[in-house]
Amino acid sequence: MNDMRILERAVQQTDIKISARKVQVYYGEKQAIKDVDVDILDKTVTAFIGPSGCGKSTFLRCLNRMNDTIDSSRVEGKITLDGEDIYDKRVDPVQLRARIGMVFQKPNPFPKSIYENVAYGPRIHGLARNRAELDEIVEKSLRGAALWNEVKDRLNEPGTGLSGGQQQRLCIARAVATQPEVLLMDEPCSALDPIATSQVEDLIDQLRSEYSVVIVTHSMQQAARVSQKTAFFHLGNLVEYGDTDDIFTRPRDPRTESYISGRIG
Amino acid sequence: MSDATISAGAPASQPRASLLVPDARTRKRNAAEARFRAYGLGAIIISLLALVVLLFTIFGGGIGAFRQTYLTIPVTLDAAQLDKSGNRDPEEIKKVLTLAYGKILDQSLQAVIAQNGIAIEGIADKDVSNLISKEASAQLRAQVLADPELIGQTIQARVLVNGRVDGFYKGRVTMESAARDSNTSPAQLQLAEALKDKGMLATKWNWSFLTNPDASDQRPEAAGVGVAILGSLYMMLVVLFLAVPIGTAAAIYLEEFAPKNRLTDIIEVNISNLAAVPSIVFGILGLAAFINFAHLPQSAPIVGGLVLVLMTLPRIIIPARAALKSVPPSIRDAALGVGASKMQSVFHHVLPLATPGILTGVILGLAQALGETAPLLLIGMVAFVKNFPAAPPAGLFDPASALPVQVYNWTQRADPAFMERASGAIIVLLIFLLCMNLFAIFLRRKFERRW
């Protein structure tokens, strides 16, 4: 919270990438998300913070319809990407997920080579016409994930043989390779040590220039370090959403204040 | 703040026991552990002993089936008896029955005995002619029909001797037992010994056990597992081509695609129940559905195969589902996260990881089907089948036997020589099963990947 960088980063962007209105999520009878309204800006890092079980990951997974894979889940309300309702009947979630990439909590590379991990997305979406183009995408993505220099000589070795931090950056490279517009990250650093964490955080900051990044995190320091916008969730409600420095320095809601000062959560 | 409670909680009054002397509680605990280890070791020793005894009896009784006693004598194929017209017309030659060939063999053996001056006291003509197996004349006839030019020549014929004489060289028959036996006599055995001395009779490795079809009750020496191996092979083909794709597809659908509701719950329970249904019930089902209703031929590998498919399906589905379930969900998320469709995530990522488990289940299911007897008895595969089935697919509808059924069949017969054949067939079956299990282990090792 004492990170001085917060103050240096004003939000320049005003284009709304994703807009959520009156979003309700149910798991069976249980309501996990209540009346969430949020506008996620383009080329901005937005952090979702809140205590465990507050629904921030659930809400994140609504944004690329990963909740569809859970049978009992039900989403109400409206979420739009560039003004188009992503829960419209005509939307194919597969196409949506190609535009909204996702990085998960635990690094989950495919048990294939590093090259194949990154090439998989472009391959199934037909982004490369030949091997040379695919090579180019793989290199660009790995460079984008700040991993190229470490793995360029062993692209054919299994991705699972990398260290945890490298694996997570490989997963980011894999997500970036499909050329998404939004990148969702679900606690991407929770399984990493501090050094790997700072590498991934630096990377997130770089990614901001091309993508809209949404990150769920347990660590308030991390939210303060990497994000420009922060949303605080509590018990399924979006309590407060605003510029990161406002949330951390001048919270309006007493619950936000108690959470960031360590009294709840 | 917690430091205070720790120091306050320790009882100060008790004297500290030495670490070098275990206290009563520890001794009791250690004794219990030692006892448990002894039980475990004992259980393993008992099962190993049982296995050793089993293998010893089977191999002791069955190894003889792989050796066979043959008599090699010059046989003059007399044209006057075998081809009266003299024009070597195959149709004419076919009219001469095995009886004539038997006579020729008989005459040849008599001639050999006379030439070598073998004189056995009290030997009857019947003993001499019975020395040669009844199957031998049929084999000689087949040889002549295949090559009519042999007629008129004198060939060195290698012919089977009767089962009792064969048993004498394998230790099954003794002079004492022969004296009480109406099918042989001590004199016949002495004749065999005399022929052996002249180098005409020898016990050799017996390939024909693996290639011959079954033989009738009086000719155990000619019986082989050829038709049974072929029948079992055909049935395995049917199982492989039906049960494996159907089973894996069902497992993939149920595990990855099917909604989780009451209907799929019921299906799941019923698959588990089917795996526990006694196999003979599947035999009755096969009899009713495939033979009585669909009018497929009896004793045919297609029917046996279909019954085994029904029986094997749950045994393939259950391990395949377990293998799919054991693939970490993070892999599915990863694939969906980069925009793969459900099917792409399953076929590109989940299935390759589940392959070793699925294959192991498939092979163990096949191995179980290979050894299954009861359902096959009900659909008529227990019949005596002398003719080889044709090549598949037409051969699938020809009558055939199966290895386990052949074993069952032979143990029912009176002649003790068939006991030896049955054990031999069990050895063949065990070797097949062993190979399949080794293959399963090999596949698991080959495809196993860490993630």
UniProtKB/TrEMBL annotation, chain A:
Entry-linked InterPro entries: AAA+_ATPase (IPR003593), ABC_transporter-like_ATP-bd (IPR003439), ABC_transporter-like_CS (IPR017871), P-loop_NTPase (IPR027417), PstB-like (IPR005670)
MF (Gene Ontology): ATP binding
Boundaries of every ABC transporter domain copy: 11-260
UniProt-listed SUPFAM superfamilies: P-loop containing nucleoside triphosphate hydrolases (SSF52540)
PROSITE patterns: ABC_TRANSPORTER_1 (PS00211), ABC_TRANSPORTER_2 (PS50893)
Keywords: ATP-binding, Nucleotide-binding, Phosphate transport, Transport
UniProt-listed PANTHER family: ABC TRANSPORTER I FAMILY MEMBER 17 (PTHR43423:SF1)
Protein's name in the database: Phosphate ABC transporter ATP-binding protein PstB
Organism of provenance: Paracoccus broussonetiae
Source species taxonomy: Bacteria, Pseudomonadati, Pseudomonadota, Alphaproteobacteria, Rhodobacterales
TrEMBL record, chain B:
Protein name: Phosphate transport system permease protein PstA
Primary gene name: pstA
PROSITE patterns xref list: ABC_TM1
Transmembrane segments: 38-66, 233-254, 274-294, 300-318, 350-371, 422-443
Family annotation (Pfam families): BPD_transp_1, DUF3333
Membrane topology, record value: Multi-pass membrane protein
Compartments it resides in: Cell inner membrane; Cell membrane
CDD domains: TM_PBP2 (cd06261)
InterPro entries linked: DUF3333, MetI-like, MetI-like_sf, Phosphate_PstA
ABC transmembrane type-1 domain residues: 229-440
Keyword match Transport: yes
Family recorded in the similarity comment: Belongs to the binding-protein-dependent transport system permease family. CysTW subfamily.
Keyword line: Cell membrane, Membrane, Transmembrane, Transmembrane helix, Transport
